[in-house]
Amino acid sequence: MDTDGKGGVATSKALTWVLIVVLAAAVAVGAWYVIGSRATSSGPPTAADLAKTRYDLPQMTTNLAGGSVIQLSISLQASSDQAKGELELRKVEIQDAVNDILHSWKREDLDQPQGQEKLKGDIMKRVNELLHNGRVTQVYFPSIIVQ
């Protein structure tokens, strides 16, 4: 037993403070985990969210290199409402850029699925060079006819 009678009380107070600090740290870590998981659990955007930032260009018909003709519809997925607004304002510039790209492509280039994917990439790159507010994250061809 403690001879001066004070050691037991001091040890008890120190142990209480250690428990309080450990408990506070555990609560802080738990709160950080819960708040962090809520922020990241929003999941992928819904179809409705994507539709709000999708911009459809008017259907285009133009010549390909080699004399073939292409008719296609293009939908551009914008990264934000602001980017979609800029796509609308730059419609003519975008159509001109797409025409320039298509004029360098041949029918044979588009006959393969990987050719269409490369064309989408070329269009996305060129359109993103035009944008100042946001970017295009995906290019879709709802319809494409090559003759």
- Helix content percent band: 55-70%
- From the alpha carbons, calculate the radius of gyration and give it in angstroms: 30 Å
Q: Helices and strands, in N-to-C order?
A: HHEEEHHHHE
**Poorly predicted regions:** none
On the 0 to 100 scale, the average pLDDT is 88
Approximate strand percentage: 15-25%
Task: Characterize the biggest β-sheet.
Answer: 4 strands, antiparallel
Which class do the helix and strand fractions yield? alpha+beta
The CATH class label of the largest domain is Alpha Beta
Output the CATH homologous superfamily of the largest domain.
Band 7 domain
Find the CATH topology of the largest domain: Tetrahydropterin Synthase, Chain A
| Assembly state | single chain
Question: So what's the overall shape?
Answer: rod-shaped
Number of helices: 6
Total beta strand runs:
4
How far apart, in Å, are the first and last alpha carbons? 100 Å
CATH architecture of the largest domain: 2-Layer Sandwich
Q: How many domains, in number, for the residues?
A: 2
List the helices and strands and how they pair.
Elements lengths: L6 H34 L6 H6 L1 E3 L3 E4 L5 E10 L2 H9 L1 H13 L3 H4 L2 H18 L5 E11 L1
Antiparallel strand pairs: 1-3, 2-3, 3-4
Walkthrough of the structure:
By secondary structure, this protein is an alpha+beta fold. The chain folds into two domains: 1-43; 47-146, Band 7 domain (Tetrahydropterin Synthase, Chain A, 2-Layer Sandwich). Helix content is 57%, strand content 19%. It has six helices and four strands. Strands 1, 2, 3 and 4 form a four-stranded antiparallel beta sheet that branches. β2 and β3 (69-78) form a beta hairpin. It is rod-shaped, with a radius of gyration of 30 Å.
